[in-house]
Amino acid sequence: MQKIETRYTHSPEDIKHYSTEELRREFLVEKVFVPGEITLTYTHNDRMIFGGVTPTTEALEIVLTSELGVDYFLERRELGVINIGGTGTIEIDGKKESMKKQDGYYIGKETKQVIFSSDDPEQPAKFYISCVPAHKKYPNVKISIDQIQPMETGNGDTLNERKIYQYIHPNVCESCQLQMGYTILEPGSAWNTMPCHTHERRMEAYVYFDYANEDTRVFHMMGKPDETKHLVVDQEQAVISPSWSIHSGIGTSNYSFIWAMCGENITYTDMDMVAMEELK
Description:
With 280 residues, the chain is mainly beta. The protein is built from one helix and 24 strands.
């Protein structure tokens, strides 16, 4: 089964008077991984499609044609995949690759067929995907976390010691506009991306997971720097972050998240830093 939900764009003025329920309805995706299903969100923020593919007893294939005005899903798009579940397989135009937890893949435009399956239905793979418009075909590349030299940043004194693994990034593989990576907070750390920033030239989507325990929650900070709001995010839920919004989080314990960006460029450091005294 495949489900896709459309989310529309918002001005900062739109959310000033949103209730908690309204804010969650517009920016939080509560169900990303559903066993045996493909669950996608199509945001009009830079036309990103993101979500979860969770095969169990049967293989799953994303089929989007009329929704995108194309003959096949990746006719005009590129795709990033990272597995955060059990071992599975990804078949790309007939070529099969095993995908253990933390394995990723960049799949270029004009790829006709991508099929996802799990080795064990009781411990299914959880393929998190991000898909954005593309103007050029770049080679498909498998990316393992073992091949990536992480950026180690933060420290224990400020509760933000973490490792950032850049999967789809110019240092690793070519892409048109998609960037995608995996951040892991060290035990005892709970803040990510603080001091915070915005990037007017790119939007971003986060999925939070690998919580330390079932009671862990992440408070995702969003909004204009001088008028911040928050979302309380449970395990394996996702958040849409418009280009004008900060995107930072504090957890009740450590956790991991996947970030994906698209927009005007693929310069990871192109961001507008926010001084702490500007936050309100």
